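TA notes. Do not distribute before section.
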Amino acid sequence: MSSRLEIARASLAALPATRRVMGLDLGSTTIGIATADFTLQIATPRHTIARTKFQADAKALLEFAAKEDIGLIVLGLPLNMDGTEGPRAQSTRAFARNLEKLTPLPIIFWDERLSTAAVERTMLEADMSRAKRAENVDKLAAAYILQGVLDLRR
């Protein structure tokens, strides 16, 4: 775990001041997207894209990254509760390997265990409708994941 923390800290430290960070919550049918402000203190949920084929998904993500001055991608890694990697984590790593071939942007992983559960709980406490929860969960989970990395700077 400490090596992931060290990688995240080093990646944030190496980020040029004019660039921002993008967080991704990679699901089987959608990808939630969040971005950090230029001070790297606040993660903001942005939007969710419906997954189609890898090339189309990658194109949408990289176009968004270029438009938003992104210098680092944080990808939520869905570890099992015991910290091991299962099929979902392997799929996420494969997505990252394929995306790395298309961009010079560094991609780091962040443990996303319980991120969706935390976001769901918050939305339930806010008395958000089922439809609104479904519409927002992925981008809010991406912001939750990204905020975890940003909090390392404090």
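Switch to the second chain here.
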Amino acid sequence: MEFEPYTPSAANPWTRDLVSHLARRSGFHASNAQLAYWHGLGPQNAAAQIVGYPSEDVELDSQRLSRSGGLLDFAGDTEHERAELVRGEWIFRMVHGSHGLRERLVLFWHDLFAVQESKLVHYPMVARHMETLRSVAGEPFGQVLLDVARDPAMLLYLDNRISTKAAPNENWARELMELYSLGLDQYTQKDVVELARIFTGWTSRGNQCESFEFKEDWHDKGDKHFLGETIRGRSGPEGFQEGLEALQIITRQPACARHLSQNLLMTFADPNPESHVVEAFASILRSEGLDLRRALQTLFASDWFYAPDRINNLVRTPVELVVFQAKALGIRNPDLAGLHRASRSMGMDLLEPPSVGGWDHDQDWFSPMAAEGRLQWAQRVAALPHSPHPVHGMPAMDFDSLWNAGDGKALIENLLAKLSLWDVLRNDLESLHKLWLELLERDDEQDWPPAFRREAARLAVLLTLSLPENCLC
């Protein structure tokens, strides 16, 4: 049976490599101290600790205040420049946050409930949208749908802001079922029409304001027949309840759990989960009332999750890639290293997905554009200023510390381990070491002065970050 609890044994021990697998999938990266802690807890307790993150991240908030205050308090000259601050704030949270699963779920929802900053235009609406996704990151799916349905950015992006009883707009109704909750062929055109009528009057205050409003006089108060059920029409403030009832009907559909199961498994476990696996995880979601955190706890503690076929079988998105590498290499002030611009150069621009369907994944991140972007990012990291101590106001790296293991071969092995590439490339260590020496135009490693050793470490960073295997997670 799928998703039986993983019980370590002599033949199948709970190793640090498996803990690292859990850390990469449930967040972006974990320190050696955190990995050691989870290793000591065991798979069941580690999974519970990861999904049980608190509502507040006190350490993160302290860092934000001590470093620069509220990044979003700084006004730009244009709405787009101010939206860049939202991207920068999000990157700050990804690289400095204490609870990786929270921001990993925010990224998951941003991909599913895709909106484009270029269409929203108004900066406060973009900021409010990110606050909405973060506030519901680990909530049950029904609550997520409700908050997204009331989000001014979504109301504007899918045109429900102008949906009235005289002219119901079907965009939100269609995407709510097709992309967000049920999938293709799980509803009829009649259901789209009726759902559009149900959500008439769900709008926002003014043309660019970031607050929700239900306009009673815009709402169609007639009865609706939706997904085989009748919703009694209501007038006045009670008309809002029709939308709540419709969302409850949607989440009760068997297809809803399957659709959510498919998306979660493809994001956290397997790019092509088999249908019986999708159904098995959907059953868990149903039993947990579509509570993501409880379902993910079962996933992260399951024997299926740690099977050899699940290890390094996902392809990182560019955002996941740059955040992981910045944290793994110990870049100081990584949020100032232009991570969101690096991700953009690889084809993933936060807050600007290519369509309402979000990004394509898996093999798409091996495109020539993505490869060129990864090389540019590797060059940028390798050229960072050297600093053995914490610095303020700029990104930096301690390149000398990478030599702590000894010679050049140990240097490359150290980098492969930091980047979780050792299991994948251990058999290539000799050839990588040889290539590194050739690029340095050296035959041996005798009597290298400190300055040259530092440049050699920079080249080792460039070489290892340029490897396509970095995309594997």
